[in-house]
Structure formats: C-alpha cells, structure tokens
Write a structure and sequence with these properties.
The chain is 42% helix and 23% strand. The chain is of the alpha/beta class and 226 residues long. Strands 1-2-5-3-4 form a five-stranded mixed sheet, with helices on one face. It has a two-stranded parallel ribbon with strand order 6-7. β3 and β4 form a beta hairpin. It is globular, with a radius of gyration of 20 Å.
Amino acid sequence: MIISRTPLRVSLAGGGTDIQDYYKNGHGSVLSTAIRKHMYVTVNRRFEDDIRVSYSKTEIVDSLSKLEHGIVRECLKKVGIASNIEVTTIADIPSRGTGLGSFSALTVGLLNALYAFTGHRASPKRLAEEACEIEIDLLKEPGEGGCRHRDKRLGQLEECSEGGRVREQGGAVTIGLTGFDGGKLAEVASISYVVPVKCMQQIEDIHLLIEHMLSMTLRDSHECGM
C-alpha cells in the first residue's frame, strides 16, 4: 500500500492572480504558506480487475471512462493504470469550499502516490506541471491557478528568496527555516536554520519549536524595551 500526505495551504496575498485570465494581461504573484492540515491518499492493488475509488461516495467500475471522479480518472490515465487498483482519499478538513487548496492537494498527492505505486519517483516539478494540466487543461476547473499546485510541490522559494534579498537591502534581517538541504532560502537568509532530515513531519515539529522560541524572545525583548 502507498500512502501520500500533502499539506493544505492558506493564501496570504495575491489570491486569484495566478489564474490565466488575470496573469495573461500582466503579472501574477501569490504568497501562501502550507499549514498542518493534510490531504491523504492511499493506493493499493486490487485482486479484482476493476477499479474502486472511495471518497465521499464509493465507485466500483470496470473501466476508467465510467469513473465519475474526474481527478482520479485523469490521474490514472496520466500514470497509465487502468485496472486492479483501489484509491481512497481522506482529508483533515472538508474537501470543498474552504479555500485551503484541497482540490490541488488531492491532485498532487494522488499523482505522487500513483507514481510511487508503479515504482517511479516523480520530481516536484513534474507533479506540479501534470497537476496543472489535469485540473486546468483537461478538467477545466474554474478558479484553479498554477501557483496552487506549485505551492504543494515546489513551494514559493523563488518568491521568498527574492523577498529576502529586498528586505536585507533595506537593513532587515531575514531568518530562514528550512529542511532537507536548505534550498535557495538557506542561501539568501541572514540566519538559516536547516533541519537536515527528509521527514517533513520532523521538520515541521522542529520548526514549530524554533518559532515558539523566537516569538518568546521577541516578546521578552519588547517588554524589556530592548
């Protein structure tokens, strides 16, 4: 069994500017952050020759064309799986109407799980591009912008690192909290805290501790008039 976990996100600024009708006439830029709420996808081999998909309802069909769930149908087509498969989706929050990007998280998480199921590891860039293609080009989902999928797999490090450079030019100090090898943000931040592990949950937990310590230090400094 393959299980993927993809974070949801909160938009802080620029929401809607990543939609083609907007950015084709100018510049689009979205600032958002991942949160500790997730979309979970499980993929498992099915003994029967059919396809079983479980979400708010359960579908059991004998061909991809009969699947009502558009994202699951198109993701299976993209990866090249047509039978003997079971897909289940579970979210920490309601799947629609929250504005937390659950639709995009499902697409990215499902592609990630399906590629792993076939024994392949898709790059973050590939997952983001294929998720965009499925939702925007194939399913014609209204309001789906390209940045939302890139949030899930690429993050917005180019935007963050450029913002860090601009702030430092104005005399500010930037603190970067990252994981894995640090990435671009570690290169441009004045102070960089890199958690050198590949487990996202461990990285998030350590970042949370650091954030608490930083906020307490800043609060104490302010109260002391420093």
